[in-house]
Amino acid sequence: MIEKLAQLSVDESMPLINTTTNNVDAAAAAGIFAAMGGLMIFFVIWGLVGFAIWLWALLDVIKRDFANPSDKNLWMILVIIGLFIANPIIPIIYLVVGRKKGTTSGGPAAPTQTPPSQTPPTQTPPAA
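Predicted structure:
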């Protein structure tokens, strides 16, 4: 019986390793790993873009003044939760909808005017 097993392993007509199948398996594995790498790059870019939009929305909520203070608190909570639940959907909703309800606190500076006491008197030309 042992002689028959030894003869099977050395027999030329039946190789122990099928090289055609192994080459196909290696190519399939390489394709799978390439697809996984591509997906990983996609999700990293998606995460970075989502984080940038989230940060923009959060800083905008902090900067803006709302007519109702509870609106600011609500948007702040929604944007913070949006990072963990629906990134970047909730921050985009804020940037499209909620941003219109607030005004910037540091808006453009008012033009400066000199007090009337410091203005030089103007001379009117004599009437002819």
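Summary: Residues 52-102 form one domain.
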